[in-house]
TrEMBL record, chain A:
UniProt-listed InterPro entries: DhaK_L_YcgS, DhaL_dom, DhaL_dom_sf, Dihydroxyacetone_Kinase
The organism of origin for this protein: Streptomyces piniterrae
SMART domains xrefs: Dak2
Gene Ontology terms, MF aspect: glycerone kinase activity
Protein name: Dihydroxyacetone kinase subunit L
One Gene Ontology term, aspect cellular component: cytosol
From TrEMBL, chain B:
UniProt entry tagged with the keyword Oxidoreductase: no
Swiss-Prot/TrEMBL GO biological process terms: glycerol catabolic process; phosphoenolpyruvate-dependent sugar phosphotransferase system
Tagged with keyword Transferase: yes
Name of the molecule in the record: PTS fructose transporter subunit IIA
GO MF annotation list: phosphoenolpyruvate-glycerone phosphotransferase activity
Entry GO terms, CC: membrane
Keyword terms of this UniProt record: Transferase
Species whose genome carries this gene: Streptomyces piniterrae
Domain of life: Bacteria
One of the Pfam families matching this protein, by short name: EIIA-man
Length: 205, 137
């Protein structure tokens, strides 16, 4: 990530790459969601991120914080499922934490994301280990704070976190009604969270 | 002054349009004859599918806002999360909008009855929340 300016253009790129990744993986997300959810995660995320990419292209905000706030607002208003307010809160709270700066440091981004992830945990009343998106998001933020602190390390940690949801029993959302039958399936929300961090690493290249 | 001035507005948010509308009809019906507090349903997605729409919620809240606050009752999942997210982060809802922790159907009846009697927002929320205490066995 060194050398990449973390300015508004970078954040627009992150969201655009995220939109492409969600679009590419939509069928996979829906397939995962059909096992333990209501089989709409892929299409919901696809619709939400398509709206994000469109609004950022037509009205690109001037600061990193404003990019994430605008993206979060779009997700809350267009997704239609629980992932809308959850991802919307992640991006809006992170964006607010970044303030008005026209460019942010990697440390500021990490702390902004941490504030966003904490807000998601509070909104959902969830903790790591509940088989939710937090199981990818928290390891990713921790990796940003680690020795290398690179976006690649964060993407890797998010991916590992998503895979590690397979043996877990869901304790939140519709999947929790399945009890032990939720074991053995990868969590769709953790999977889409890993896509976002993969997109962050890709946007920095 | 618009109709219902000074009364708390009630918004009923469900995953399903028909559920939200039916609960609104039930609550208004049980509130008895005469004038009731403004009630609006915000169920499903704008295209009529199952889900939650922040736009329908915000529009419903504006419709029932008479300046005395708006109580939002929700059913489950994304309905809860969407309203919580709008209140925590957004500027889409009117000033004085509040998520009320209550069972959806019973809470809606209690909220509409109390709001129609002129109760303030806090009292409406308490009345709706007390519906949790009515055990069925």
């Amino acid at each position: 990530m060194s050398g990449t300016a973390l300015d508004a253009a970078f954040f627009v790129r992150w969201m655009t790459v995220s939109s492409a990744a969600v679009d590419r993986e939509a069928d996979h997300l829906t397939e995962l969601d059909s096992a333990i959810g209501d089989a709409d995660h892929g299409s919901n995320m696809q619709r939400g991120f398509a709206a994000v990419a469109k609004v950022l292209e037509t009205e690109p905000p001037a600061t990193p914080g404003a990019v994430l706030i605008a993206a979060g607002r779009q997700l809350i208003s267009t997704v239609g499922g629980a992932s809308g307010p959850l991802y919307g809160t992640l991006l809006r709270r992170s964006g607010k934490a970044l303030g008005e700066a026209s460019e942010v440091t990697a440390d500021q981004l990490r702390e902004g994301l941490r504030a966003g992830v904490d807000a998601v945990a509070q909104l959902g009343g969830s903790a790591p280990g509940d088989k939710t998106m937090l199981d990818a998001l928290y390891p990713a933020v921790e990796a940003l704070a680690g020795a290398s602190g690179s976006f690649d390390a964060a993407a890797d940690a998010a991916q590992k976190g998503a895979l590690a949801t397979v043996p877990l029993q869901a304790r939140k959302g519709r999947a929790s009604y399945l009890g032990e039958r939720s074991v053995g399936h990868q969590d769709p929300g953790a999977t889409s969270s890993a896509l976002l961090f993969a997109a962050l690493a890709e946007a920095a290249k | 002054m618009s109709e219902g001035a000074g009364l708390v507005g009630i918004v009923l948010v469900s995953h399903s349009g028909p559920v939200a509308e039916s609960v609104a009809e039930l609550a208004v019906g049980l509130a008895g004859g005469g004038f009731t507090a403004p009630v609006a349903a915000a169920g499903g997605t704008p295209d009529g599918g199952l889900g939650t729409s922040s736009e329908l919620i915000a529009e419903a809240a504006r419709t029932v806002d008479r300046g005395a606050g708006v109580a939002l009752l929700v059913d489950l999942g994304s309905a809860v999360l969407t309203v919580k997210a709008l209140i925590a982060e957004g500027d889409e809802l009117p000033e004085g909008a509040r998520l009320v922790d209550a069972p959806f159907v019973e809470g809606a009846v209690a909220a509409v009855v109390s709001a129609s009697a002129g109760a303030e927002l806090a009292a409406v929320a308490t009345a709706a929340g007390e519906a949790y205490g009515y055990r069925k066995e």
